[in-house]
Amino acid sequence: MKKIIVLMFMSLFFLFLFPIQGNAAANTSKIFLNGEQLSLPNDVQVTIVNKNVMIPIRVVAENLKFDVDWNQQARQVKIQQNEKVISLTVDQKQAMVADKQVTLNTAPQILNKTLVVPIRFVSEQMGLSVKWNNQEKIVYLTGSNNESSEASGDDSGSDTTSLTHVTDIVFADNQLVVSMDGEQVQPVISTLKNPDRLVVDLPGTVFGDLAQPLDQGFNGKLDVTGYPNVSEVRYSLFKRDPGQVRIVVELNNVKDVQFDQNVIAGKLLIDLNVSGDSVPPVPVTPVIDTGRKVVVIDPGHGGSDPGTISITNKPEKEYVLALGLKVQALLLNEPDIDLVMTRDSDTYPTRSERVKLANELNADVFVSIHGNSATSSPQASGTETFYYQRSSSKDLANIIHERLVKALGFKDRRVKNGNLQVIRETTMPAVLLEIGFLSNAAEEKAMSSEEVQNKAAQAIVDGIKEYLGI
Question: Which residue from 106, 247, 291, 334 has the fewest beta carbons nearer than 10 Å?
Answer without folding.
Answer: 291
